[in-house]
Design brief:
Elements (H helix, E strand, L loop, with lengths): L3 H17 L3 E3 L4 H11 L5 H9 L1 E3 L21 H21 L12 H8 L5
Antiparallel strand pairs: 1-2
Length: 126
């Protein structure tokens, strides 16, 4: 069940992004599409992102000159599953890099060991 605040924030974000005219949108994801994606990649969308994607699905278009990342949106409909898994894994890679190369102890008041953090963060969607 989507929280009212999450739904409001997600719909508002979609509306504002659409107003910029910088992105193209398709009809939002359906309940069946959300269920398939969550099952296939073993995660659950946050309420606000679910509402955002239900309001309208942003799609990738050829990049403008000077744009450095040509496909900023996961291609939830018909996208390459390996590319989607790679996109889903990027935040994990960033955390692992931060744990490995920075003083993580100041952000870790519980004293959780680096190996535990790395093992937990190493989870990859199916």
């Amino acid at each position: 069940m989507i929280s009212n605040e999450g739904a409001r924030l997600g719909a508002e974000a979609a509306r504002r992004l659409a107003q910029t005219g910088l992105y193209r949108f398709e009809p939002g994801l359906t309940a069946a599409e959300f269920a398939r994606i969550e099952r296939e990649y073993a995660f659950e969308f946050a309420d606000d992102y679910r509402a955002f994607l239900a309001a309208g699905l942003p799609v990738n278009v050829p990049p403008d000159e000077g744009q450095t990342w040509s496909k900023p949106w996961p291609e939830w409909r018909g996208g390459d599953p390996e590319k989607i898994r790679d996109q889903l894994g990027r935040p994990v890679e960033g955390v692992l890099l931060d744990v490995e190369h920075n003083d993580y102890s100041s952000h870790n008041p519980s004293g959780t060991s680096r190996s535990t953090i790395a093992t937990t963060a190493a989870y990859r969607p199916k």
